[in-house]
Design goal:
heterodimer, A: 145 residues, elongated, B: 13 strands, 14% helix, globular
């Protein structure tokens, strides 16, 4: 009985220590490793500082532009309505889906995605329609012969 | 004599009120550079100057690199301008009021803007030189939010660890190299790691030339949306 009690207490103490370590270690970040990962950007940053006002397109020095450095737009939006991809809004609700996406996000890119969803759905239905129509005609033709 | 006393007291009260107003910060600006690396190995550098006015509620990024553009966050909307023309508008209900600029001007940075409306403090402990606080969302917010753990060091915010509603680690932020500007301490270096199913992404933001309560540059502080 004493043994069980001792083991129980030891387990409790150890679990407490584990949680404590978890919390402290949460805030330890390997800064050096991160700075190493971002090193190509530091060279680019220095170049931009030395050449005030220079933009990405104007850089004619290939040495400072790592092949992985991109110019892509920063995503400033909160995302599509209800977290559901705008494409799906277009697929499921068609024009109404596009309208919902436009009114909620007021974002041209998200609205375009909904439009593509709507177009994809329409094309799919047209393909199914013509395939069915074709097979119907083929069936009718073979029955006539 | 009574009139003299009255005038003296009046002047004194004006002077005192002036010094009190001087303590209230309403604007902040800073040069910034943000370096990012995404899970697919792509990287992005963004540089420019950021302006925030607490009274107009406008957060304006005057971006100079990779290309010249201006981002304006006001109410729940973000506007992107290129060469004075609006090119994009997007809804973003959280960005402006959850920026560190807003927290700094409202003296809420130390708690990362967390309050007892949404969260309860469920644990506080001291480990080494950190005071670690666990914030748990109140019952009605648990469907949308997870716990947040903050830490303080030298009476300043040091780290923020955010979990989602399923208790999965979403991001870590470390606030360092505080500089004293006026009556506030502002972190000049912020490291962020974001965790997703695609992997980790890193973001390092550095602030320089931080100024408080600038009186000029209304073009940015009160950016007129055309």
């Amino acid at each position: 009985m004493k043994k069980i009690f001792t083991i129980l207490v030891a387990m409790l103490v150890m679990s407490g220590m584990t949680f404590a370590n978890d919390d402290a270690s949460l805030f330890s970040v390997d800064q050096q490793a991160i700075e190493q990962e971002l090193a190509p950007l530091s060279d680019l940053e220095n170049y931009v500082n030395e050449n005030a006002g220079v933009t990405y397109d104007e850089i004619d020095n290939p040495e400072v532009l790592d092949k992985n450095v991109v110019m892509g737009d920063v995503d400033l939006s909160y995302g599509p309505p209800l977290g559901i991809p705008s494409f799906i809004w277009g697929v499921v609700l068609g024009v109404i889906g596009i309208l919902i996406v436009y009114l909620i996000t007021e974002d041209g890119d998200e609205t375009k995605k909904a439009l593509w969803g709507c177009i994809a759905w329409t094309v799919l239905w047209l393909v199914i329609y013509f395939v069915l129509l074709g097979s119907l005609f083929a069936g009718a033709a073979s029955a006539t012969i | 004599m009574n009139t003299r006393k009255f005038i003296f007291l009046l002047c004194l009260s004006f002077l005192l009120s002036g010094s009190i107003f001087a303590q209230e910060n309403f604007r902040i600006r800073s040069d910034f550079s943000t370096k990012e690396k995404f899970p697919d190995g792509k990287m992005r550098l963004t540089m420019g100057t950021v302006y925030y006015d607490k009274n107009t509620g406008k957060l304006v990024y005057d971006v100079s690199f990779p290309q010249k553009e201006t981002w304006v966050f006001v109410d729940t909307t973000c506007y992107m301008f290129k060469q004075d023309s609006l090119v994009k508008r997007a809804i973003n209900p959280f960005f402006q009021k959850t920026s560190i600029f807003h927290f700094a001007l409202t003296n809420n940075l130390i708690n990362f803007g967390l309050n007892d409306i949404v969260y309860d403090i469920t644990n506080v402990k001291k480990e080494e030189d950190l005071i670690i606080i666990t914030w748990t969302p109140k019952e009605k917010f648990k469907q949308n939010f997870g716990r947040i753990i903050t830490s303080k060091k030298d009476n300043n915010l040091y780290g923020v660890v955010i979990y989602n509603k399923d208790d999965v680690l979403v991001s870590k932020q470390i606030f360092e190299q505080y500089v004293r500007i006026g009556n506030i301490d502002f972190p000049s270096k912020i490291t962020q790691i974001q965790y997703s199913s695609y992997g980790e992404s890193y973001q390092l933001t550095e602030y320089k030339n931080i100024k408080l309560n600038e009186t000029g540059k209304n073009f940015y502080y009160n950016f007129i949306l055309k």
